[in-house]
Design goal:
two-stranded antiparallel ribbon, about 180 residues, 3 helices, alpha+beta, 5-stranded antiparallel beta sheet, binds nickel (II) ion, Peptide Deformylase
Length: about 180
């Protein structure tokens, strides 16, 4: 397993719609292993393949004791609305309140290529939706008002102007974001 570089706001792959995975093979399983490793080092609650530069529909979650990979994930049911602060490993140090469906039902494939269905609420539901957004080229900042977004992005770009389009996650990071 290896830790992968994480793409940052401004990297075009974050705005790409990731491609469906046709068959779950060893290459995809190796990618999932690396993504778990990367999410662990970065202390994330979720990570999508776009964030490690690969526009394919796979993401990993580690939230509230639930750790799983999801391949070709789809939300098939949603209920309620809830707001909470979100962050993103691709936009470090930036946070904003995002309103999303509170409870969802997820359908996806696991690492073996087997379909599974998962009912989720709270942080797990939020993380799943945040990661599926990534696979559609959508970032959490797209869910906030245009003025707030402009302020956040302008400040973030100023604070991170010396960084490139990727960063190597370090174990000392301690903020739990996705
Ligand atoms: Ni994110």
């Amino acid at each position: 397993m290896s830790v992968m570089d994480i793409h940052l706001l401004g990297s075009p792959v974050l705005r790409q719609r990731a491609e469906e995975i046709e068959g779950v093979d060893d290459e995809i399983r190796a990618l999932i292993d690396d993504m778990f490793e990367t999410m662990g080092v970065a202390c994330g609650v979720g990570l999508a393949a776009n964030q490690v530069g690969i526009a394919r529909r796979v993401a990993v979650i580690n939230a509230e004791g639930q750790t799983f990979a999801m391949i070709n994930p789809v939300v098939v049911e949603q209920t309620g609305r809830a707001g909470a602060e979100e962050g993103c490993l691709s936009i470090p140090d930036a946070y904003a309140e995002v309103t999303r469906p509170e409870s969802i039902v997820l359908e996806a494939l696991d690492e073996s290529g087997e379909p599974f269905r998962l009912a989720a609420t709270g942080l797990v539901a939020r993380a799943i939706q945040h990661e599926i957004d990534h696979l559609d080229g959508v970032l959490f900042i797209d869910h906030i008002g245009p003025l707030k977004r402009q302020l956040l992005v302008t400040r973030w770009k100023k604070e991170h102007r010396d960084e490139g389009l990727t960063r190597t996650p370090r174990p000392e990071e301690s903020d739990a974001t996705n």
